[in-house]
Every structure is written in C-alpha cells, then in structure tokens.
Amino acid sequence: MKKVILVLLLAPIIALAQKPIKPNLNKALNLWKDGKLDEAKAMIDVAETDAKLSLDGKTFYYKGLIYASLDTTSNENFKKLAENPLDIALAAFDKAESMQTKGKDYFIMDAMGLPFPKTQQMGILAGAYLNKGAAAYQEDDFEKAVGFFKKSQRVNPKDTTACFYSGYANFQREAYKEAVEDLKLYIVNGGTSQDAYSLIVNALNGPLEQKDEALKMVREAKTKFPNNTDFPKVEIGILIDQNKVDEAKGGLESAVAKEPTNKILHFYLGYVNSKLENWEASKANYLEAIKIDKDYFEAHYYLAQIYLIDAEKVKREMNNLGISKEDQKKKLDLDKVLVEKYKTALPYWEKANNMKIEDNNTKIEVLDKLSIMYYYLGEDAKAAAIEKQLKDLGVNNN
Question: Rounded to whole angstroms, how far apart are CA atoms 16 and 1?
C-alpha cells in the first residue's frame, strides 16, 4: 500500500518536470552568458518556434551565438547536443542578417555594460578557430588543422590569414590540389605574401605536373614582386623543363647581366646552350660558374659531359665501320683521335669524381665513365681501382 501512495505522490512532480519551456530571449541570452549551453539551446530552440519571436531577428542572432558556442566548447556533453552546430549557427546568423534593419548591427552588452556588436563577435569566433588550427598544426596534425582553418574561413570568408594557413597545412600534408585552391583564394582575397606564390608554383611545377599553369603563376609573381630574384630563376627552370630553350636563353642572358656573380644563372645558361648544341658557349658558361664556386659539382659534371660528347661521336663512328681494309685503316686513325678526346675529357671526370656526390646513381655514372676511359687508355691500375669502387656500390660489371 505504501508503494502505491509513493507512486501517486511522485506523479505531480513528474508532471511538473515535463512542463513546457516558456520562450524568453533574455533568459536564453543570460543562460548562454552563464555557460549553461544545454539550457540556452533548449530555450532558443523553443523561441524559434514561437509565433512572435520567430519574427524577431534577435532570436536567430542569439541562436547563432549559442550554436557557435556548442561547436567551440571543450565540454564533451555540450558537444553532443547538436550535429554540425557551426552549420546551424551560420544559417541562423544569415537569417538574422536578412531580418536586420538597414544600417544597424546586432549587439549584446558586455560585462562592462558596453555594446558588443555581432561583427566583432564573428571576428572573435573566426579567431578561435584559427587558434585551434594553429595548435593542431604545432602538433603536426595537419588534417585537423585544415578543418579548423576551413571553419575560420566559413565564419570570415574574406579573411586572408585562414586561407594562407589552410593552404600551407594542406601543402604539408601533401594535399597539393587543395593547397593551390586555398592559396589562390588567399591571393583573390587580397593576400600579398610572396610565399603563397612560391608554394603554388612548387605544387604545380612538381607533384601536380601542371607546368603551363606553374609558368603562368611564376610570371604573375615576377610582375607583382619585381625585386624578388628567385621568381625569374624558377621561370627559367620551368622553361628548360618544357624544352622552351630559346625563350629560356633570352631570360637567362638578361638575368646574368643583372647578377654576374650568380653561379646558378651561369650554370642554367650553360645547360640551355648545350640543349641548343652551342658547345663552346656552354663550356664557357660552366667554366664561369666554376670560377665563382670551384666546388660547384653540377657545373663540373655537365662540363665533363660536354668534353665526352666528341669522344662518343668518334666511338660511334668506329663501331659503325665494316671489316674492309679501308675501314680497318680508318678505324686505326679514329682510334688515335678517340685517345686524344678521352685524354682531354678525363681530367674533368676525375675532378667530378673527387667531389662530394650526393646522388648514388650519379656517382655510379661518373665511375662508369672513368672505368671506360681508363681501360681504353691502358690505365689498368686506375681502372681496377674504379671497378672496386663500383663493386662497393653494388655494381658488378663482370
């Protein structure tokens, strides 16, 4: 009997707990200010359905504030109160703006009793996402960082900082297409960092293999930043990659005139001249680069290649001869020419071999060329030493 009485006594209490919420905008705002996001959400959700309050732009302005807080809060229980709260917040802000009186901004009163406008609040919200993204970036969680930077962009679409950070983080996680999109948006929005162009060009010219677009962007950068000495060099490199050597040569000659002590420009000009088979000019360019930096391996290596070209031509001619007396006589004559060509080329290959070579394949090629020349010239001891080096690198010519 006592149990029945207890149930009857509880019934009014349960009924009281289920009493409908009476919508009140000021109460919703105060609950939000007090950090009671669950109660604030419940109140604003009811206010939105109220016949009168649904016509008041402040209802949706407050809803935007409350749902934005649900997205940025560190309270896991509050986070579970809504799916995609930022989407809901931004939609609410948009609706509030559509109901806004022209020339006026929504605001709330801050702790000092001063008006705190919506535009300023949106800036703080965007900044909060930016800071979260920066923290994730510091932890090398680039994907998470991009997510926060994207949210910052959504809150403040014209902000350049979020675009740049998102592009940089995407570049770091090798999402190059997305990185280019972010950084191009950064430029469209008025961003002026030279680094943005550098990253775009690197992505397009490298992993994305969009060299025409890379050329277009580096030329835009060159016009925008005339004092930057790197963009003209990058342009030349792209032109060389595209075999637009005549065009590259003109740019290089101008660049060399401006920077006569720049070894890289002399090297590139040598490379272009070699492509055009201007061998003597190419030799002079490489030698000029070596004058500037005696330890410039690439210049030594490519110069060595040029000196070997004539020898290789003679060798091919010998190999194409027949077995007639005339051919055999000609072969002996050409053999003397080949010996002299090898003797001329040899010091350049020896110099290259004595330098530090980072790439293993290049080292093997240098040794292989030396091995051929030493054997042909009868330098058996030197040839054997080279063969040992090749074996140490895992190459067996036997």
Answer: 24
